[in-house]
Amino acid sequence: MKRHLWPLAIFLVVVGFLGVGLGLKPRDVPSPLVNRPMPSFSLPTLEQPERTLGPQDLRGQVYLINVWASWCTACQAEHPLLVDLARAGVVPIYGLNYKDGREDALRWLGQHGNPYKQSISDTAGLVGLDLGVYGVPETYVVDRDGVIRHKHTGALTMDVVRETLLPLLGQLDG
Amino acid sequence: MAKTFFRMRWWRGGAALLLTLLFGVAMAREATPSAADPALEARVMALAEELRCLVCQNETIAASNAELAVDLRQQIRQQLTQGRSPDDIMGYMTARYGDFVRYKPPLRAGTVLLWLGPFVLLLLGGVLLWRQLRQQHGASDPTGLSEADRQRAQQLLEGHTP
Fold this sequence. Notes:
The structure holds 2 protein chains of 2 kinds.
Chain A lengths: L1 H22 L19 E2 L7 E2 L9 E6 L4 H16 L4 E6 L3 H11 L6 E4 L3 H5 L7 E5 L5 E6 L4 H16 L1
Parallel strand pairs in A: 3-4, 4-5
Antiparallel strand pairs in A: 1-2, 3-6, 6-7
Chain B lengths: L1 H27 L9 H11 L18 H15 L4 H12 L14 H27 L8 H12 L4
Helix pairs in contact in B: 2-3
């Protein structure tokens, strides 16, 4: 009788693995940059191209870097959330305008709202490369010492903000 | 009239097949940029085939047409031109994208199960099969009939009344 239970046992084990597997998100690639310093760069800002900006200018504050582009449809899904966060003054948000045209980018911000203190123009995508950007949008949380503490790939959702970002920001601020 | 119709059908089929083959061949290779240096391109592709495209995650960046793949191939080309070694370039990629960007996962404590798992399962299956076969071979009589009953069954089957 024990022999007849083996197929059932094996089946249950396989189903167990399947259940766990279905809950995972294989497209999310863990970033090796978490807990490493922001790679340094200096790029023109979107609004005022004659001025440059980089992480060295942002030391001393906790901030978000949100990678976005006017051609990115998923960015539209998270944008209202970013606008709300900015309006509430929760945390300064800087934009990394990734592989985009300046006019398209400005027009898009005009249409959808501008949550960013400033946006940095990464037209060639080289800073994105240094940040390990592989899909837009992506959001990085950076602490006062310029260390990346978290990376979120894909559009931000209210759940992510509530369960991950806000607690982390609370930790970093205190 | 029937003959003309037949010939037309053959022609269309042949033309369709020819076009398919032509386009199939044309798409087998992605458009190479101004390959001023075929030797360099060969080295770029050799490296590109060892890196995963993170957009189309089952493809290498050699095969993928995603914009990120094009960008990364360009990075490889630039770095090879600057004289960096393939090991350096692999290190550059994994520093930014993590181990997952290597198309073949490195053999490490965390990936031992991934590499050896299939062989372990195969071995396990083989052992179970062997034991099963041995049992069947060893069993004297699967049906459990006594000798007398067996003879009676035989007679019945052959149509004799016992």
